[in-house]
């Protein structure tokens, strides 16, 4: 769909609608298209044209360096449909050990003047067991695609809200046991602002046992990992609101604990990234902000981590996945040039439409660091 046409549809149809309802409607429509063989083939052929730009990261064969960040497909029911848009990887979640409803509605808002989203979803999902069933079904569907069209499937896991922080490691292990056999890689989410106390788990003393529990459980339940690393790659997703010194400390911890990568970054609680009516609205609402206003800090954290690795841990194989504020192909090229191995996006898909991922990939081909 032409971008100008999608913009007209978005402003006329989706913008006036409750944001969460619009999300469910558009996602359902995408899956409906994917359920019709001839239609899905034509849809995928058009949108995926020119998106093959293979690269190996984390010991896995990515179709290209641009992926869909966690949050769009919370339980893994639309992996094949989303792969038709041209993404090289799909990260599902955040999935929690137990099912939970999330926060009260309304909990998802558009900040139209900034091409941004404010959410306080609260990890609403049906739990790790249900997600595992959905991902297993999607993996069967994806396996029928040509090898060059199969997306890498990442699974983002978080803490169940009712579980005490002292039991967090065991809770993450529950999700790992269910989902590690189905995941190409796992991401530990300790950085969402929408679960009380979750960001406190970024402290070294709290994060270390979680990393150990997830890594050990994955090794126990996965005998033949898909990655050439010899294990299920493990990443940690960090908040953009950490002080620079804390970011460096977490990089050191990741190296010490043999983490394979970092996702930089999650949503921000900083309202100063907004202006005008959007800022006034956001100041009265809880939740994290994603989209263009996050771009500057996300890039700062990426550069900070890359510089720290080069200075303190030269030769480290720690993979960096840059997320937050990616709006166009120039942003992708800039992230790759600043040291990212992969780039993820989400809010831009809402504002850019189904043809947007392909434009990102085609416009950033050849953008390689080193």
Automatic annotation (TrEMBL):
It catalyses: (S)-dihydroorotate + a quinone = orotate + a quinol. It comes from Brevibacterium jeotgali. Residues 55-361 form the Dihydroorotate dehydrogenase catalytic domain. It comes from the Bacteria. Pathway: Pyrimidine metabolism; UMP biosynthesis via de novo pathway; orotate from (S)-dihydroorotate (quinone route): step 1/1. It is found in: Cell membrane; Membrane. Substrate binds at residues 74, 119-123, 189, 194, 266-267. Its cofactor is FMN. GO terms for biological process: 'de novo' pyrimidine nucleobase biosynthetic process; 'de novo' UMP biosynthetic process. This is Dihydroorotate dehydrogenase (quinone). Pfam families: DHO_dh. Keywords: Cell membrane, Flavoprotein, FMN, Membrane, Oxidoreductase, Pyrimidine biosynthesis. The keyword Membrane applies. Its EC number is 1.3.5.2. Its main location: membrane.
């Amino acid at each position: 769909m032409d971008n100008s046409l999608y913009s007209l549809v978005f402003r006329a149809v989706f913008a006036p609608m409750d944001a969460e309802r619009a999300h469910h409607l558009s996602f359902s429509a995408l899956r409906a298209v994917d359920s019709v063989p001839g239609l899905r083939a034509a849809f995928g052929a058009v949108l995926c044209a020119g998106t093959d730009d293979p690269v190996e990261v984390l010991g896995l064969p990515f179709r290209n360096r641009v992926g869909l960040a966690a949050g769009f497909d919370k339980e893994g029911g639309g992996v094949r449909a989303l792969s038709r848009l041209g993404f090289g990887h799909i990260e599902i979640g955040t999935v929690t050990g137990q099912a939970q409803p999330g926060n009260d509605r309304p909990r998802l808002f558009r900040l139209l003047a900034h091409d941004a989203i404010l959410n306080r979803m609260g990890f609403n999902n049906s739990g790790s067991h249900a997600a595992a069933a959905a991902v297993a079904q999607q993996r069967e569907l994806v396996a029928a695609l040509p090898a060059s069209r199969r997306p890498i499937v990442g699974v983002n896991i978080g803490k169940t809200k009712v579980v005490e922080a002292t039991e967090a490691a065991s809770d993450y292990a529950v999700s790992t046991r269910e989902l590690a056999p189905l995941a190409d890689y796992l991401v530990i989410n300790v950085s969402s602002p929408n679960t009380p106390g979750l960001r406190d788990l970024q402290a070294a003393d709290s994060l270390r046992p979680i990393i150990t529990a997830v890594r050990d459980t994955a090794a126990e339940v996965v005998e033949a990992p898909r990655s050439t690393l010899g294990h299920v790659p493990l990443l940690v997703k960090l908040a953009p609101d950490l002080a620079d010194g804390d970011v460096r400390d977490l990089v050191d911890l990741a190296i010490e604990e043999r983490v394979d990568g970092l996702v930089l970054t999650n949503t921000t609680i900083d309202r100063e990234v907004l202006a005008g009516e959007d800022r006034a609205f956001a100041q009265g609402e809880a939740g994290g902000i994603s989209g263009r206003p996050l771009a500057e800090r996300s890039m700062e954290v990426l550069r900070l981590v890359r510089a720290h690795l080069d200075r303190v841990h030269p030769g480290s194989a720690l993979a960096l996945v840059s997320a937050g504020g990616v709006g166009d192909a120039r942003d992708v090229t800039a992230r790759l040039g600043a040291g990212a191995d992969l780039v993820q996006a989400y809010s831009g898909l809402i504002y850019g439409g189904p043809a947007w991922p392909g434009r990102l990939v085609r416009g950033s081909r050849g953008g390689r660091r080193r």
